[in-house]
Each structure stands twice: as structure tokens, then as C-alpha cells.
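> forwarded from #structure-qc
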């Protein structure tokens, strides 16, 4: 197990470097520069702008800037924001909590809704329950986050006025836990819709395949209770592809959080990323990229290790 983890970390290094290279060069290829955003005054002299360019290191070739950033990253330094002048890590630390709050909540909500629906849909195929679950999965998988968010805001915030449409807390009053939960409902639901749809389909297909195996018929012929056959034998042996699907949801949740946070004015990494892109704040863009890339790579490693728990036949010693 230890050797496997070490190998996975070694394989993840070139993947991580490839992600950072791609994002770094794409950011620098975008129209505009940080100097244009910093010097909004048209009367700023060329000497002042040249001095700022040299101090920020923007006068160097792009590949030189990347290697300088990479060296500082290995030292544990993410740099300072061009926009605020504050350390990048301070900006990320302030925003990472709200993002984790809605992404983990939406992941949990997706699992507790989709897996039972998928199991029951597979247990009673072509029934009314199956048609309902399948219809829900197709609608959910095909609904973009921004469209679902706009519909929910219009119906539940504007028309009915049940849930707030923006922010983490009310602008007036104490910041209570119940107030936070009230504000979390819509962004969490919007972020979960697509994942619920795809996870229902994956669970249904996997459980249907397992229910046709010989050991399921053997368990039933021995008089095992039906719920024991369904949940102990069928569900457990069908969880490997479901867990794979859950692992693949992580980058989609992070990507969807960018749109969702903008839509609901949620103060997380997604909204910070959009703000940084608009202001060409390269250090913050790269800092968020590092956090997301590391989270996805570690998440995939954890998913692989879970396989050995679900299926004892899987070993990583070789």
C-alpha cells in the first residue's frame, strides 16, 4: 500500500506540472495585462509603468516568469496579489472555507439522494419508480448550473421569497448557523442537480448488472431476506464504478462552483477566481489552480484506496 501511494504521488508530479504550465501560459495569453488594470489612470507616465513592470517581474519572458513562480512555490511562497498586494495564501484561506462548505454539502446531498434512487430503480426496472428516477436523472444531467440557478432564484427567491438569492448571511443581524443554512440551500441544490442525475444512472446500471450474477440467485435460493440480498450483496459489489463516478465528480463540482458562486454572490474560491481573471491577477489565479489541482489529485488517490476496502481482492502491493 505504501509503495503504491508513493508511486501515485510520483505520477501526479508531471500531471501537476502540466496543469500549472497550461494555466500559466493561458493566463498570459489572455488580452490585457495587470499593468492595464493597475494603472486605470490614463495620465500615468511610461516611466512609472515600466518601473512597476520591472518590480512585478513582468518584463521577463513568460517561461522565465513561470520558472521563477515554480521556484517560489517549492519554497512555500505563492506570491502576493497584484490587485491587493496581500499574500495570495491569505486571500485563498479567506475564501476556501465557503467553497468547501457548498462543494462538500452538494457531494453529500448528491450521494444520499442518488444512490437510494438508483438502487430502487434497478431493483424494480421499468416500473413507475424506475421511470421517475430515470426521468429525474436525465433532467438533472442535462440541466446546466447557471440555468437551474436562474430558475431557482426566480421561483424560490423572487416569486415565493422562501430563500435568499445571494450571500452567506443577512446583511443585518447576527451571523448564525441557521442563517448560514438558509443561504446554503439554493447554491447547494444547484451544484447537486447535475451530479444527482449522472450518479442515479451510474448506480442503476451497476446494480442491474450485479443483480444478474449467479451469486445473487444463489443467495436468494438459500432463503436470504431480499433487503439483505439487495444491500449486502448487490449494492456492495456494485459500488466500485459508483465510487469511480463520485471521484470524477470532484473537478466538476469545483468547476460548477465557479458559476454557482458568481450567481449567488457566494464568497468562495470560484468568485475569487473570476475576479482575479478579470483583473489579470496572475499570482492569485495560479494559487487557486494549485489548490484545486492538489485537491483533485489527492481525491483521486483516496478513491483508488477505497477500492481495496470495497473489494478485498484488489491489492496495491505489486
Amino acid at each position: 500500500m505504501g509503495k503504491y501511494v508513493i508511486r501515485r504521488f510520483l505520477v501526479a508530479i508531471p500531471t501537476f506540472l502540466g496543469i500549472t504550465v497550461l494555466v500559466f501560459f493561458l493566463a498570459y495569453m489572455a488580452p490585457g495585462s495587470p499593468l492595464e488594470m493597475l494603472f486605470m489612470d490614463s495620465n500615468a507616465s511610461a516611466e512609472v509603468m515600466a518601473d512597476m513592470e520591472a518590480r512585478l517581474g513582468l518584463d521577463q519572458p513568460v517561461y522565465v516568469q513561470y520558472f521563477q513562480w515554480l521556484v517560489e512555490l517549492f519554497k512555500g511562497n505563492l506570491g502576493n496579489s497584484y490587485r491587493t498586494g496581500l499574500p495570495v495564501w491569505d486571500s485563498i484561506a479567506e475564501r476556501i472555507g465557503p467553497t468547501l462548505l457548498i462543494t462538500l454539502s452538494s457531494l453529500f446531498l448528491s450521494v444520499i439522494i442518488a444512490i437510494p434512487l438508483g438502487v430502487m430503480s434497478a431493483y424494480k426496472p421499468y416500473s413507475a419508480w424506475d421511470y421517475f428516477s430515470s426521468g429525474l436523472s436525465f433532467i438533472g444531467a442535462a440541466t446546466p448550473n447557471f440555468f437551474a440557478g436562474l430558475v431557482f432564484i426566480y421561483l424560490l427567491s423572487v416569486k415565493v421569497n422562501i430563500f435568499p438569492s445571494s450571500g452567506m448571511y443577512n446583511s443585518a443581524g447576527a451571523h448564525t448557523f441557521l442563517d448560514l443554512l438558509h443561504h446554503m440551500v439554493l447554491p447547494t441544490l444547484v451544484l447537486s442537480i447535475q451530479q444527482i442525475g449522472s450518479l442515479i444512472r451510474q448506480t442503476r446500471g451497476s446494480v442491474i448488472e450485479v443483480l444478474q450474477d449467479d451469486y445473487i440467485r444463489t443467495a436468494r435460493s438459500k432463503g436470504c431476506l431480499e433487503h439483505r440480498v439487495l444491500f449486502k450483496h448487490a449494492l456492495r459489489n456494485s459500488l466500485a464504478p459508483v465510487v469511480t463516478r463520485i471521484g470524477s465528480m470532484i473537478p466538476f463540482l469545483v468547476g460548477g462552483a465557479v458559476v454557482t458562486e458568481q450567481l449567488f454572490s457566494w464568497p468562495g474560491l470560484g468568485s475569487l477566481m473570476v475576479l482575479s481573471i478579470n483583473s489579470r491577477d496572475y499570482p492569485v489565479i495560479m494559487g487557486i489552480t494549485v489548490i484545486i489541482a492538489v485537491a483533485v489529485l489527492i481525491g483521486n488517490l483516496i478513491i483508488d484506496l477505497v477500492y481495496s476496502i470495497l473489494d478485498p481482492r484488489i491489492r496495491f502491493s505489486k
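QC bot note: Residues 9 and 301 are 9 Å apart (CA to CA). The chain has a mean pLDDT of 84.
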